[in-house]
Amino acid sequence: MGDEEKRHRAITARRQHLKSVMLQIAATELEKEEGRREAEKQNYLSEHCPPLHLPGSMSEVQELCRQLHAKIDAAEEEKYDMEIRVQKSTKELEDMNQKLFDLRGKFKRPPLRRVRMSADAMLKALLGSKHKVCMDLRANLKQVKKEDTEKERDLRDVGDWRKNIEEKSGMEGRKKMFETES
């Protein structure tokens, strides 16, 4: 175990060393990238924003303000156009995602066959080997002794149901039905 433990420590130390070297390289790359961005920013500003010189007379100041307003209007128009393009592309993306979602959702369902299973088989399939309770429902039913009630005797004594219906048809039959009940 001592030999294996030394090897494990060496591997861990090597990993930590490699990780620190990678972090140092990444830090220098980040610094270079930051410097490159700053240089690009300065180049862009020097191209598009000449140094401001304020004229002395009022008419020259007004002319400068007009020029600045014209540049602001052009920049606002460009910004508005870009916003519209972004909104349009966002809408297209949402539509494409919806179509993709719809296509994923459509699949052909296989025809399913009806499977008849007893309650025991169903519980065994769901619970696996844990199933110990017997679900024989007929065995758990109580035996009920059927008692002869007056209604049942009357129903048996009535006989053919067609005769009974013919007797009760029409208004007289209904009248008889109410008279016999009371």
TrEMBL record:
Lineage top rank: taxon: Eukaryota
GO CC annotations on file: nucleus; troponin complex
UniProt keyword Acetylation present: yes
Sample GO molecular function, one term: actin binding
Pfam families: Troponin
Recorded coiled-coil stretches: 23-106
GO biological process: cardiac muscle contraction; positive regulation of DNA-templated transcription; skeletal muscle contraction
Sorted UniProt keywords: Acetylation, Actin-binding, Coiled coil, Muscle protein
Quaternary structure and interacting proteins, as annotated: Binds to actin and tropomyosin.
Family that this chain belongs to: Belongs to the troponin I family.
Summary of the function given for this chain in its UniProt record: Troponin I is the inhibitory subunit of troponin, the thin filament regulatory complex which confers calcium-sensitivity to striated muscle actomyosin ATPase activity.
Protein name, entry field: Troponin I, cardiac muscle
Lineage: Eukaryota, Metazoa, Chordata, Craniata, Vertebrata
